[in-house]
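Think of the structure tokens as a kind of shorthand, similar to the way a musician reads notation: each symbol stands for something richer, in this case the local conformation of the backbone. In the example below we present two proteins back to back. Begin with the first one, reading the sequence and then the tokens, and try to describe in your own words what changes along the chain.
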Amino acid sequence: MLHQATAVAIGGRAVLLEGEPGIGKSSLALSLIDRGAVLVGDDGVILSRQGAILWAAPPPHTAGLLEIRNVGIVTLPTVIAQVALALTLTTDAPRYIERAGEATRGDLPIPHLAFDPRGPASAVRAEYALALHGLPRTETA
């Protein structure tokens, strides 16, 4: 199923970047890619469930395309990755949380955080969010 989100993979685990148009999903993805993440999809990903694992893949019609605001569209390598965390980008995210919430994607529970994308450390904070709250990578046969 097509899911309206941008996603990147960090160490084989996908982070879904969700939120309203213009909130900064592609910009956060670009910052994460600059730090070593790999694009799954920009402005839409294909989610598919295989057992207890949710996978994110690039949609065929936009695979590898990432919009860089005020610059244009670039083509990047893509991967398919296990969904480990959903971040809903919003400017009114709580400053402190004790634990992640839960969102259902593809009929599976996924750790979820409201996430403020503003500030120079947003990519680092997203990496820490994945490390602290993301699902572990499941090895598949």
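Once you have a description of the first chain, move to the second and do the same.
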Amino acid sequence: MIRLLLDLDGVLVRDKALNPFPDTSDFLNFLRRKGVPFKVVSNNSTKPPREMIESLKGKGIFLEEEKFVSPLSILPHYLRRNGIYRLFVIGTPNLKSYLEGGGFQVVENHAVQAVIIGQDRNLDFNKIKTATSAVFLSNAKILPVNLSRIVKDDDGLYFPGAGAIARMLVHACNYKEDVPNLGKPSEEFINYAIEDMPGEETYLVSDDIYTDLVGAKNLGIKTIFMTTGKYRKEELSKANFCPDFIFESLKDLRDFLETLPR
């Protein structure tokens, strides 16, 4: 039996407003009817998992909470395991409240143990200065919620992902430690996602060649590239990457799954 990890952005929803593709609900219902184990995975750092579930529900996508995994599902466990409690956060107010609710201290100065980096549409000079000073002066850890290089916005334009901001701090501060990847498709993320899932073979379905599919293939996971998101098929040759399968719609993916043995 196979199990599916379905990327949210670019596979099930078309934009940051979480507007679903026309065939998203039918596809998820098909998986339920056929008993195909699946989880929806996302590198979204703007909302905690429970709020994401509610936002998706408002768009007509109904998911049980245990069916959704994001880096924010993993981040609190990682911080506690490493004894990190005082934080400077580049991210949304929702992210800050989520961490404070988990028992962490979020402050607006550089005297911290770690700099948490999520998506922040109000990123400015002072935030970058505080983050840089935290790493350079306080030996703070650099902890992006994911290593996304680039993110497509709703207007079709692009901006640097959390991973790109983290790499900027690494370069500026001559940071020598490893920067962990708490997002997909890191080993920590994948193991967390499939921990309670039946099935022998994992398929990651994603529109992101560089962040998701290359990393997944390195872990021995089957890769399915969807052309419905931020990269066109022509990008594969630029990336020198060959996924296991390529589909142009969820209907095509459904037709493929119908051919697989249960």
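Compare your description with these statements about the second chain. The chain has two domains: 2-70+184-259, 72-173.
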